[in-house]
Amino acid sequence: MLQHPETKYRPFPPIDLAERQWPNRTITRPPIWMSTDLRDGNQSLFEPMNGERKMRMFRMLCEIGFKEIEVAFPSASATDFNFVRELIEGGHIPEDVTIEVLTQAREHLIRRTMESLKGARHAIVHVYNPISKTFRDVVFGMSKAEVVDMAVSAVKLIKQLAAEQPETQWVLEYSPETFTAAELDFSLEICDAVTAAWGATPHNKVILNLPTTVEVATPNVYADQIEWMHRHLARRDSVILSLHTHNDRGTAVASTELALMAGADRVEGCLFGNGERTGNVDIVTLAMNLYTQGIAPGLDFSDINAVARTVEYCNQLPIHPRHPYVGDLVFTAFSGSHQDAIRKGFAAQQPGALWNVPYLPVDPKDVGRSYDSVIRVNSQSGKGGIAYLLETEYGVVMPRRLQVEFSGVVQQHADSHGGEISAAEIWQLFAATYLDTVEPVRYREHHLFEHGAAQGIRLNVEIHGTSHLLVGEGNGPIDAAVHALQGIGIKVQVRSYEERSMGASGEAGDARACAFMEIASPENNADCYGVGLDANIVTASIRALVSGVNRAGLSLRDGLRAA
Ligand SMILES: [Zn+2]
């Protein structure tokens, strides 16, 4: 880094805004939310989502409660174009959900984009062009007038093509890309020109989306820019003022919140802040920030783990363990004094009263989580760390969420037995908790068979001394076993699955496979782990499933329960 960064970088100039109003405002209602997970996020993945992943994400976004979803950049790829067609032709779009698509302001791309939307009930066409001085001078070599003309011509073409597809209710969205780095009066000029060209009215509003394409200043500067536009826009009553923030300076959430105070109506973002570079603003954090101020956000994260696992599956990117509201460690306390304060807080918390528990800004139950007090397994405890001991002495490398879960088990043991716990005791506890579970279901053996394209399984289990043969089919051995277990009334979903080969050391014996299965059941809301060890990896995974089922304490169907 430079000794004198002022020779290379310059501060962003303040906005000249007399008597700014936003610092005195509070947010009292949620904005219109728009998910751009299938576009902005999808643009920057190591491996872009395929059709199956896109559909899974789309369904979940609908379930969460999004009413506007940007589903694709149809002119950019066949996958995106076909996905829009599949949504429309397959009837996958709920009546109250409007899909949105993005296009550059170029004629052939606009034509292809409009073609992708044939037959849609409602659609938002989102067109953009970059407007800042750097883009005008360096990238395109265009004058201001040419840049305005590019936007206006695009809008007129969309208007004409929309008129040719009258079965669709059309909404126009325009983004002056690089808004934060552009001259405000020029942003105003181009936005007003677009509003006029579209013929926006209070009954046919245009969405003007003002992005921090790249964050270039502190959040108060963005709020000033938004308030300035909010005050100066022509036909403000015919405009939905929208925000699209990125996180280059780490302040996307703050920028969005201040800009909402400054007069914006709508927010675009991604779940858990996925998106290009440092990501788009995290809509989950924004929504939960509203919720913890007592404002219903209109989005439902009652089962935040399910949302997180689906997002990780679709994006193939992990969520940071310290991510607000969702990270594996955010409802976990390692420190004794914090644990003590939280325990007292829970004890004093009356049902129905305002939330008042130290260190927990939200009741973990509200997002389907539980509070975990965890014995010190961090580096400070050195060799005493549970995960460390199991890994070095027994070759078991636990997934992080299992570490948190098992720490609770060890903590309980420590509380009731006192004193220091040895590695051997931890292993015994681990084996008793996960490996040797036989109640109510004892695994005996299984056989796999093929049935057409499906994988079949004959699973032999013992329940209260009686053996049962369960048969199931699925797209793989685990899926087949999950279906087989339905025969005894057990309904579970596999949330995550990992397998590892084990070191040859210790009790675990010869090099063996270890399978970790995180399961969820509709019966009890909490997720829990099962673990299986075996020489054979498939057998290890079936054992892990049975272990998880026993751990979850699920009830069997009538007639199988213990006398
Ligand atoms: Zn973006």
From TrEMBL:
Subcellular location: Cytoplasm
Keyword Coiled coil listed: no
Region entry Regulatory domain, spans: 437-563
GO biological process: one example: L-leucine biosynthetic process
Domain Pyruvate carboxyltransferase: 31-305
Enzyme class: transferase
GO annotations of cellular component type: cytoplasm
Keyword line: Amino-acid biosynthesis, Branched-chain amino acid biosynthesis, Cytoplasm, Leucine biosynthesis, Magnesium, Metal-binding, Transferase
Residues the entry annotates as binding Mg(2+): D40, H244, H246, N280
Pfam families to which the protein is assigned, alphabetical: HMGL-like (PF00682), IPMS_D2 (PF22615), LeuA_dimer (PF08502)
Family: Belongs to the alpha-IPM synthase/homocitrate synthase family. LeuA type 2 subfamily.
Oligomeric and partner information: Homodimer.
Protein name: 2-isopropylmalate synthase
Gene (UniProt): leuA
